Amino acid sequence: MKTFHKVLINTMIANITTGFLFFALVFWIYLETHDAALTGIVSGVYMGLIALSSIFFGTVVDHNRKKSVMVFSSIITLLFYVLSAVVWVLWMDTSQLSTSYVPLWFFMSFIIIGSIVEHMRNIALSTVVTLLVPEAERDKANGLVGAVQGVGFLVTSVIAGSAIGFLGMEATMWICVGLSLVALIHLLPIKIAEPEIISHDDAQAAVQAATTAEDGEVAVPNPASDLSIVSKGIDLKGSMKIILSVPGLLALVLFASFNNLIGGVYSALMDPYGLELFSPQVWGLMLGLSSLGFVIGGGLISKTGLGKNPVRTLLLVNVGVSFVGMFFAIREWWWLYVLGIFIFMVITPAAEAAEQTILQRVVPFRQQGRVFGLAMAVEMAANPLSTVVVAIIADAYLIPWMQGAGANSIWGTILGEGNARGMALMFFISGVIMLVVVLLAFMSRSYRKLSEHYATSSQDIAEAASTT
């Protein structure tokens, strides 16, 4: 557990650094160019590349030692941040910034690539929990991961804007280069004991041998080197095969993806709704304060765990999320909105920890990277898509309708009066849809199968290592 805590702290430093620099970049671009389209492109490209690269990252994690993956990720992130600094020093002229200014695109691209590669560490961290934490304590460990992620979100959302406002982009960039170097130096002496890595070629040889062996057991030699990174490309077929081999696991991934589709409603409308209730300064403060819920929720899970059946816990959390979505904007009361966001952030770490804990038990350790990577890719791809669709529908139809004829309908009675009733209607509908889907999931065969498989599975690598 001491090693796990060291790895967790190291990942927190890396996450804060990359999140800090990326958000600072977005703020700086808009303040310098006042080009909303450019900032939207940067954010969209960032989210899209994370989704596209996650499957590849998962394959890399599976075919290499986790320490090697983390070191490799840290080195690549540091390298690209240094390249961005070189562009700034040798090429950038801030008086010429525009969408046609080539150095700006190189500068942005290097920062985006460095920040995206860091996500490889997050996939590796999920497998490290399986490796280092005893099975009975994994739900609490995943809660601790959620608390750390909450700290990262809180810190980056608060300091990014302040850094750009008070220090400027150049100083912010050099701070992040320094923090990336600190994260790498801190990581190097950490030792992660890991069993043999079964490479892709060795696994294929084992399958061929198993077809001829009477007992089906094969000893696989030639583990991957701890000093090099083996890349086997995007193993989408292998990832899907693993997921399909576990009863009910595909339904879990699709359920998480559906949640992110619904989550697009909040991604698209939370800030506009908040700005209807508060000034920009006060809204930023409210959002920062409510994000403390992530830290509190993760801390609670790290103390109490998730219960005997994390699958059930995951669905119950989503029942809570659906009720929050239905009622936190039922009236234009600022305190109700902030309270709803806070409750949402408190219970969200339980859902994240439950999903992680389930995968860490039911998916074989040497295949977890690909499953975590595919799950991240599907979930990340769903949210930007629905965000765009929701924003268009709300702006073109629901908001004008609720300001006109809709105000005199049954929805006007339910949601009351105000300038943002169209957005409130979107929140309410999304909450109802989520509640219906969760209740159907409770009655599904996939829920029963996955719950039974979780209860009868065991994968305690940490415990086995401590007894040998």
From TrEMBL:
Localization per record: Cell membrane
Pfam families for the chain: MFS_1 (PF07690)
Annotated Major facilitator superfamily (MFS) profile domain residues: 1-449
Keywords associated with the record: Cell membrane, Membrane, Transmembrane, Transmembrane helix
Membrane topology: Multi-pass membrane protein
Transmembrane residue ranges: 7-30, 36-57, 69-92, 104-132, 144-165, 171-190, 242-262, 282-301, 313-330, 336-354, 374-402, 422-442
Broad class of where this protein is predominantly found: membrane
InterPro entries for the chain: MFS, MFS_dom, MFS_trans_sf
Any one Gene Ontology molecular-function term assigned to this protein's record: transmembrane transporter activity
Keyword hit for Ribosomal protein: no
CC terms in the record's Gene Ontology section: plasma membrane
PANTHER family for the chain: INTEGRAL MEMBRANE EFFLUX PROTEIN-RELATED, MAJOR FACILITATOR SUPERFAMILY ASSOCIATED DOMAIN-CONTAINING PROTEIN
Name of protein: Major facilitator superfamily (MFS) profile domain-containing protein
Organism (species): Corynebacterium callunae DSM 20147
